[in-house]
Every structure is written in structure tokens, then in C-alpha cells.
Amino acid sequence: MSERVSGARASGLLAAKGPGLLVMDVDSTLIEQEVIELIAEHAGSRAQVAEITGRAMRGELDFEASLRERVATLAGLPVEVLDEVVAQTRLTRGAVELIEELHASGCRVGIVSGGFEEVAAPLAARLGIDHVAANRLEVADGRLTGRVEGRVVDREVKTRLLRQWARADGVEMERTVAVGDGANDLGMIAAAGLGIAFDAKPVVVRQAPAAVHVRDLRAVLELL
């Protein structure tokens, strides 16, 4: 086992037929940043939001409650700020290569984010990702209200979407892969045929069957 990865590798049906669906987190996994912190920079609340985000990702806070608390600090920002944040996002090294190789092998790719659709959807379109789900910020009169529209994409929702997309794509759960870095990814990591902690918080590394220890998504392929 290399220093780049540790833990289980693909086995059984996953090893025999290859992955049929890979679902990954967005913030600090597909991209380098936490989107809510980029938005909060414009509201002057980045330090406060970063502290809450860190605690939530370590599993110290209820995710939904912490998200609503962080989003409340964004109230009043003009919606145009979101376009600036989209331009600021940086893909994690190896993201394009991982997605291209998966697609070339016939594997579908999905992203699930505790962040926001306004950023995740353009990323999905740019990368040719097959499934996308994220939270949506409420807007009124061209400004953020400080609230989230509809359901919150938390640990349970991420797990449910992994199963839902696998059924829709006709993929056995044994051939699914889940990749994430935070405590809210642990449900889908446990449910997948292979769950991978990506440069993750200690609580995730301890519980995930496999882990990538470098910020390079191509290392995921070493486990497949």
C-alpha cells in the first residue's frame, strides 16, 4: 500500500466489473475550498463561518442546524456575489482526469454537496457530471435572504441520493463508490461498495474503509 492511499481496495463485484457509479462531495473534495466561506468573505463573516464549518465537518455539530446558522450570516448580499464565487473555485488536482477516466470506463459520476446548487450546478455542467444535488439559497429582490430553500443536503440525504442514483442507473450497490472528507459524508461512505475518505477529517479516516492521504483525486483510481 502506498503512502498515497490506505485501507481496502476494490474487491468482489466492484473489482470484477469495475465501478458503475462514483458519488463525491464537492467542498474540499472536488474543489479546494469551502464555498460558504468564499461567500461569507463578502459578508464579513468568514472567520465565524469557518469555525462553525470546521466543527460541523468534524461531527461536533448537527449539520443542518450549523448550515442554517452559517447561511443566516449571508443575509443581504447581492445575488451577483455568487457569480464571483463560481469564478473563485479551484478544482482539486486530478479531478478532471478522474472524471474522464471513470466516464471512459462507463462509470457514471455524481456530486452531492452540503454547499450550494448555484456553484455545484455550473461545476457539474463544466465537467460533464451525470448527477448533482446541493442546497439552494433563497433570494428575494436580488439579495440573499439568509435562508435555504427546501430540504437540506445532509448526511442522510447524501446516502439516499447515492442509493437513488444507483437504482436510476441500474448499478448494483456493490459497484458504487463514495468519496468525501467530512462527517456528513460518512453515511454514503458506509453505504457504498467502497467508501473513501479523501484528505479527510480524522473521524472520517477512522471510519472509512479506505483513505486517500494526498490532495490528488487521481489517487482514488489506485483504490479501484
From TrEMBL:
Q: Where are the catalytic residues?
A: D25, D27
Check the record and name the SUPFAM superfamilies matching this protein: HAD-like (SSF56784)
Pfam families, alphabetized: HAD
Q: Which GO terms describe its molecular function?
A: L-phosphoserine phosphatase activity; magnesium ion binding
Q: Which InterPro entries match?
A: HAD-like_SerB, HAD-like_sf, HAD_sf, PSP
Q: Which GO terms describe its biological process?
A: L-serine biosynthetic process
Superkingdom of origin:
Bacteria
CDD domains with a match to the protein in the record: HAD_PSP
Its EC top class is hydrolase
Keyword Chloroplast attributed:
no
- In the Enzyme Commission scheme, what number(s) does this protein have? 3.1.3.3
- Keywords from the named record: Amino-acid biosynthesis, Hydrolase, Magnesium, Metal-binding, Serine biosynthesis
What cofactors does this protein use? Mg(2+)
Q: In which pathway does it act?
A: Amino-acid biosynthesis; L-serine biosynthesis; L-serine from 3-phospho-D-glycerate: step 3/3
Catalyses: O-phospho-L-serine + H2O = L-serine + phosphate; O-phospho-D-serine + H2O = D-serine + phosphate
Per the record, what is one GO cellular component? cytoplasm
Tell me which family the UniProt entry assigns to this protein: Belongs to the HAD-like hydrolase superfamily. SerB family.
* Name of the protein in its database record: phosphoserine phosphatase
